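Structure in, sequence out. Go:
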């Protein structure tokens, strides 16, 4: 399962977002072991060094923890996972607003459209 990467964003960031998204969606659960760096690199179709960076960055922000000789695991820290969810939500909202404003939509138009969608459209 090779991944189609966007050309305008570093691959390691896209992989971090993918893993974070899988955690938020519950595909990967707190305490789950992630595939080895090599296995995930092969699965994603990237260099093992890129995958190693992804795992290192995820650990630096507290999303994962590496247990020597056992592998890399998703944190069980509920506060960290709630922060991850909140951060991803805010990033998506900021991106949406930026793109919509770039197309000339007012904040009021965006709010009205979101309220209509919430109502069951």
């Amino acid at each position: 399962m090779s991944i189609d990467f966007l050309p305008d964003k570093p691959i390691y960031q896209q992989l971090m977002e993918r893993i974070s998204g899988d955690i938020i969606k519950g595909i990967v659960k707190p305490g789950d072991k992630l595939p080895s760096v090599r296995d995930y690199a092969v699965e994603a179709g990237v260099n093992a060094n890129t995958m190693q960076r992804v795992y290192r960055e995820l650990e630096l922000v507290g999303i994962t923890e590496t247990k020597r000789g056992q592998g890399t695991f998703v944190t069980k820290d509920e506060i960290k996972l709630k922060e991850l969810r909140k951060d991803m939500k805010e990033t998506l909202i900021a991106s949406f607003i930026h793109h919509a404003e770039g197309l000339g939509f007012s904040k009021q138009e965006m709010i009205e459209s979101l309220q209509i969608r919430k109502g069951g459209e």
